[in-house]
Design brief:
Layout (H helix, E strand, L loop, with lengths): L14 E2 L6 E5 L5 E6 L5 E6 L4 E3 L4 E7 L7 E6 L9 E3 L5 H13 L8 H4 L13 E3 L13 E2 L13 E2 H17 L1 H5 L14 H15 L9 E5 L17 E5 L1 H18 L9 H18 L22 H15 L22 H10 L6 H24 L15 H18 L3 H14 L24 H5 L51 H17 L3
Parallel strand pairs: 1-8, 9-13
Antiparallel strand pairs: 2-6, 3-4, 3-7, 5-6, 7-8, 9-10, 11-12, 12-13
Helix pairs in contact: 1-14, 3-5, 3-6, 3-9, 3-14, 6-7, 6-8, 8-9, 9-10, 10-11, 10-12, 11-12, 11-14, 12-14
This protein binds ligand G3I and ligand 9MR.
Length: 551
Amino acid sequence: AGLAHADGIAINQIGYLPGAAKVAAVPAGDAKAFSVVDAGTGRTVLRGDLGATARWEPAAQDVRLADFSVLKAPGHYRLHVDGMADSPTFIVAADAYAAVSAAAIKAYYFNRASTPLLAANAGRWARPAGHPDDHVLVHASAAGPGRPEGTVISAPKGWYDAGDYNKYIVNSGITVYTLLAAYEHFPAFFKAQQLNIPETGNGLPDVLNEALWNLEWMLAMQDPADGGVYHKLTNKGFDGIVMPADAKGERYVVQKSTAAALDFAAVMAQASRVFAAFEAQRPGLSARMLAASRRAWDWAQAHPKDVYRQPSDIRTGGYGDDKLDDEFAWAGTELWVTTRDARYRPDLDKLAINVPSWGDVKGLAWVTLAQQRSTLTTADAALVESRVATLAAEQVALWRASAYRVGTRSQDYDWGSNSGMLNRALMLIQAYRLKPSPDTLAAAQALFDHVLGRNPLGQSMVTGFGAKPPLHPHHRPSEADGVDAPVPGFLVGGPNAGQQDQKGCPVTYASRLPALSYLDHLCSYASNEVAINWNAPLVYVSAALQALTPT
Ligand code: G3I
Ligand code: 9MR
């Protein structure tokens, strides 16, 4: 089990792009200076002074910063401070984040339902198909005139949500959106990327091939009778720690919810835009998605408060959300941008901005509007710029004030904290795209560094990457497959002061401090699970830093 360490030099364990801001956190001590050492020759290539010691509350740690941004020559290095162990070896390279970005998308392939993973694509993580999902029962909560309780429907494909084997529309919303947005914003980067998935080479960029695996499932989650969308496709309870092929529980679609309809409408409107450029490869798909989006929207207008209420016989993830203004605004924005039909347009003056999460998606509307700004009126474009800039200024201020030079506070270490940090970075990147400023990019870089090892645990939070990656994620295939290494490319949830998983856990967290509330153990579903919505900003931010960082 991973213990909490606040005694080592903390650094991004993958490394840095040549032009990036490069900062390490060093525990308090007597040394006044640091040096950067060539990992091959042992020669010192750079010396610098450590910053002043300051208290970082999330880990109750006294730290100093080592800023070695001037190091630009590609190579393998370690950071040295007298009196303590050297940092892990890190690289400076022009393609430093290409591999993690690719692996973060490939992780979705590894979580595909309803298909075998072949050795040619999956290597040692090959496995037989699980969950055909071609015999799914309509649960009592989802029954309607055309589909009474017990009706059998087919809704194959999609990704397993996380460490569990269920499929949830709400969480698919922000996830697919973020992957498609990454493609919309950085098409050249993704067109050049090959992931060795079964569809590679078919004329679509692989990120779109992967997103389609889930979009096809989502389309099957819409009731053709009324346009409503089932909240989830699930077992009654969570499976044991078994491989997908051995999880044979009955599957159900459960309750149509307003949030599911709106998240579905948003993503289908966006996907319709994206796939319009691939009519030759996928004839009719774009139009089908837009029609599905409009029907889901209309259903939500007629059912504006159908909040998900977990039925008493269903015990899997809830993704319940009773605040739906943001879902309406986001879906309306996507439909408006795609169709320019004014009936969908939300009141932008009244739409706030914040960092998005699965249950609060208004920020995604602003991301789309920022991307579309050249098509907006001058007044709309000015509003978008000011909202995005205001949010970024808050985040930059947190970053600047932080002793760790990372824009997080104690209350930010909650369930899935790593994805919260990467979504902050994603929003900072929107501001940088509108108006490039070194501090904005450095604040995004800092959040990325934090999840890749510049944290007081000295822990990379991505499987397969960094000197100390998670080894025991709460991910059923990684535990049950008999392969030592977990499936690579997954971001784990991260430090979570809630520690909701202690009951039934054979080990305890080493600390109650927020930034140290992490346990690299299978039992720790509150800090060490993986999830599709958490990986999405990892894909986005790694690709964006790779594409935007000046050389
Ligand atoms: O919204 C409240 C906020 O108002 C309050 O201040 C704060 C204080 O703790 O809590 C917030 O609620 C949290 C909620 O997430 C919203 O983010 C809950 O404490 C927290 O327990 C809850 O965690 C969710 C978790 O399921 C348990 O329901 C995670 O966000 C969510 O990502 C996670 O999702 C699970 C799926 O259900 C099943 N599949 C795996 C997946 C990942 O663990
Ligand atoms: O494995 C489940 C995980 O995917 C969920 O995110 C988590 C929270 O809903 O629940 C996990 O299942 C646990 C259950 O809630 C309580 N008993 C232990 C289960 C983990 O083995």
